Task: structure prediction
Amino acid sequence: MKNIRSKKLDTQVAHAGTNPDKTYGAVAPPIYQTSTFKFSSAEQGAKRFSGEEPGYIYTRLGNPTTAALQEAVAVLEKGTDALATASGMAAVSTIYMTFLDSGSHMIASEAIYGPSRVVMEKEFSRFGVEFDFVDTSDIKEVKKVLKSNTKLIFIETPANPTIKLTDIKACADIAHSNGAILAVDNTFMSPILQKPFDFGADIVMHSMTKYINGHTDVVGGILVFNDKSLMMRTRKVLLNLGGTIDPHQAWLVLRGLRTLSLRVKKAQENAQIIADFLENHPKVAWVRYPGLGSHPQHKLAKEQMHGFGSMISFEVKGGVDGGRTVMNNVELATLAVSLGGYETLIQHPASMTHSAMNKQDKIDAGITDGLVRISIGCEDVQDIQDDLENSLSKI
Result:
């Protein structure tokens, strides 16, 4: 791959994972849309299968387009290796399947992407995996449920959808003292705004559907490592389960990644203005945004993040009816789940992304009926503000 000497993030975003095309001189990486690869001889095929010779065999096992994407994200996360997956949930499930056995225990953030919790509660529990979902923003709660059989601590920071923050270093210290792995879902921050490896994380994961792709047109996930042995252990599971990404999907994500830094910075700039606006609005009960001094962990945000991102949660006065009124009256913002695209998206977690959680678990996690989550996009910020002002005025 192209040697990127610069340590400047914007330059890495533009060039990481590029491989000059020696055949035609193509600047953009080609899409190797093939299921299988030809061997020059039976001997070469045998050597590739045995690992004696590098090279591609079958796209589920590896593909040049996928490899380019994996290298790019690994560089941006300051990791050594990465494994791209067919979806963010394929990445989550691969972590669970790799590091958890029957009788082993996982600690995870209680406010986390809904399916990341539900797949553990409904599926992995059937095989004897134990788990505790706790408020990981309170390190005492993590320590309280730590067991001798705890093999994995899985955190999402900022948490989805409450925007609570978890101290990555503190969780890494707890995990490693117990011989466990710390995995961090870094989707909300992207590699631009948070580097979990700097604080001791073992695995960093992303739903590439969100900021890394950034165009609301591809589903994908990725796992990043800074330890080759952990990557190889995980790779065996991923390849056997078949959750690898398609090369065209990988190419589209790589294409979207080239504007990652620009998009993240513009959306973040907008989000700070919108958070300030919402916090001072008479129809809004409270706002959670790490860039506000009122955020309970504003100090931690400044210590472990390189910016505050563009995800905001807020509760309107009027509860469920008030929230429904806002969402039914926005015109510029799109009423849709997902996040991290170039456009502003708004949704109601309790009835949408986290609807599969039971009522008490939602209450315990701080996912109230009136909570609204908004992913601020790259539009003109005055237009976003005017849209929210108009919809709030309908309450």
Q: What stands out?
A: The longest strand covers residues 150-156. The chain has two domains: 9-257, 260-392. DSSP finds 15 helices and twelve strands in the chain. The domain at 260-392 is CATH 3.90.1150.10 (Aspartate Aminotransferase, domain 1).
